[in-house]
Here is the input.
Amino acid sequence: MSAASPEKLLQVDNVSLSFGGVQALSEVSFDVHRHEILAIIGPNGAGKSSMLNVINGFYHPQRGSITYKGQTRKAMRPHLAARQGIARTFQNIALFKGMTALDNIMTGRNLKMKVGFLLQALHLGPARREEIEHRLHVERLIDFLEIEAIRKTPVGRLPYGMQKRVELCRALAMEPDLLLLDEPMAGMNVEEKEDMCRFILDVNDEFGTTIILIEHDMGVVMDISNRVVVLDYGCKIAEGTPDEVRANKQVIDAYLGVG
Amino acid sequence: MELLNTFFVAPFASMFGSPLFLAEVIIGGLLTGVLYSLVALGFVLIFKASGVFNFSQGAMVLFAALTLVGLMERGVPVWLALALTVLVMIALAWLIERLMLSRLVNQEGIILFMATIGLSFLLEGFGQIFWGSNVKRLDIGIPNESIHLAGIPINQFDLFAALMAAGVVALLAVFFQKTPTGRALRAVADDHQAALSIGIPLQRIWLIVWSVSGFVAIIAGVVWGAKSGVQFSLSLIALKALPVLILGGFTSVPGAIVGGLIIGVGEKIAEIYWGPVLGGAIENWFAYMLAMVFLMFRPQGLFGERIIERI
Here is the structure.
């Protein structure tokens, strides 16, 4: 905790990432404070999803560093990130399609299960007790996200909006400190969007989870986020409160396409 | 009329003419079928748990059997040799994960499939370099004699093999459906990236899957090896598992079992009652014929997941 001030949960420093000749991110830096909701916005191809992939370790940047919970690394690794409390959802929904909603959500508890797998195989005593304990926790989350009715449905059969909700639930089952949401409201109707906004705010409020989200709907971004980072062609062009960002000349240009 | 009679009347007439003999044929078929199921199960496990169609399953059966026999020939007692073979198969799983799979994360299924074809050559070659390529006898001390139950002769060895297979299947079913590790395995099969994002360590999961299928290979290898000698043709058993898989569905454990039983019984009945009409040796192609019919009418198999593409 010495390098970073304690209220910073995550610090991204001069991160550059390229794929062959394509520069996805160049020298991007920003901080994420504990308990805040930070939105990353920008036109298509601005590098928003790449940024999330760097934070949870799917991509390894060529330059720069990431400081999470006071530890500085050149790059994260996915299962290390998960172990340290970073959970995420995906732009194109990455659920386990053959499994039921409940089983999907229970996989989010896997890391928290301590009983060795030989005992699990025998399905005895401690393993059974542990399963019940985790199931209780998961049921509370299912209540919270109002998806009781679809528990036992294979997720492949659920409508899109519901799949998004199950995916969020799986991420929450990990009890994350930092939650990365990649376009949580894409493809939803107004009502579904309102529900999702409410859930995000409630998660932030009740569990104290820090949230980074990517979103295209400006109304939503302005309503629910504490701060906004704007990317354009892989560079950060603005950062600040929603009002500051809305008034920023460069941001307006990027969105309206001033050449 | 003559033709109709020989194909559709006479065989049934002789079936019901001596029901005791029919029962013997069916039981014989079921017992062989269990063995087919066992080999098919190895495929299904890996396919379900990692999305890889493991062509080298047959080679793993051969490799396991060769290792066991090789150790026993050098005077290692049966139980110790079995334990050592298990260790060898786990070590093999570890090597496969390290040297092959970890380099192919997030690749297409067909790439992984090609890799397993290479692996099967490697295993066949290495197994024979280490342990020699002549036919070996494997004796695990179960008598190959018949006992009579209600007047029907049942081969003791086949019965033992069937019971063993049933035990393994029950254990695996519980493991896959009811335990957190089983859930993690299914998760990895569905989506590598999502599995990584919730902190499932791919490496450990693959190690477990390949170890488990190595374990199934040992059992199949012991049973088949004791039945027909440990030799190169053991790895061709894999081919017999293909129609079983097509019948049962690639993703279904119960499917592998039922598919194996249907083929076991089907080919025995076809051989005995229709064989003479068609000039014999039906047993060799009946399974493939059945698989082809299934491919035409029910390509996902009896229990496989129906593939519905959303547009």
User: Anything to note?
Assistant: The longest helix of chain A spans residues 125-144. The CA atoms of residues 95 and 167 of chain A lie 6 Å apart.
